[in-house]
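Record 1 of the preview.
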Amino acid sequence: MKLIDISPTLSERTAVWPGDVGFSRSVALSIADGANIDLSSIHTTVHIGAHTDAPSHYAAGGQDIAQRPLELYYGPCQVISADVGRGERIRPEHLSVPVTAPRVLFKTGTFPDPDVFNEDFAALSPELIAHLAGEGVRLVGLDTPSVDLCHDQELLTHTAIASHDMAILEGVVLTDVADGQYTLIALPLKLQDADASPVRAVLVA
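->
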C-alpha cells in the first residue's frame, strides 16, 4: 500500500479566491519563548487548498458539510488527464478513457502553483456532470480552485452537481499522479453550518 498526498501545504502563502480570507496562524504559547507547550490557532476561509464544497455553498437549503455522508469521500477513485486549455471546460468528448469508478478526479495542469492564483484555470462542464452521473459517479474533483470557471457567476456546473447530489473536491495536487485507479480518502471536518471544509486528500495506490 502506498499513500499519495494530493493536498497542498497550507500556509500564509497559499492562494485563496480573490477577496476571500487567506490563511494566518497566531501563536498563543511557544516553547521557544519559555512556555511548557506550543499552542496556536488559525484563521482562514474553509475553501482553502484541497477542500470539499457543501451543497449549502451553492444551493439554497442545501446540506452543510457536517451533514454530508462520509461515504462520498472515501472509496474507489479514478484519475483522468484532460487535454483542455486554460479557461476551457472539460466536456464528455474530452474523456480519453471510460469512467470506471464512482469518484473521478480530473488532472488539467491549469493551476500549477497553489501559492499563485491564476484566473484562467480549466473547469468542468454541466454536460460532463450529466454524463458522469449517468455512469454512477458520486464525487467529482479536479486540480483547480473550482469546478466552474473563475468568472462564471451563474455557477453552471455547481448547479448541475446539485441536481445530481454529487460531492465536490477542489484544489487537489495531481502533478505527479499517474492516471488510473486508486482509493480516495478526503474526509471533511464536521463543521456545523459550514459551506465547505479543508481536507487532507490522499490516494491509496
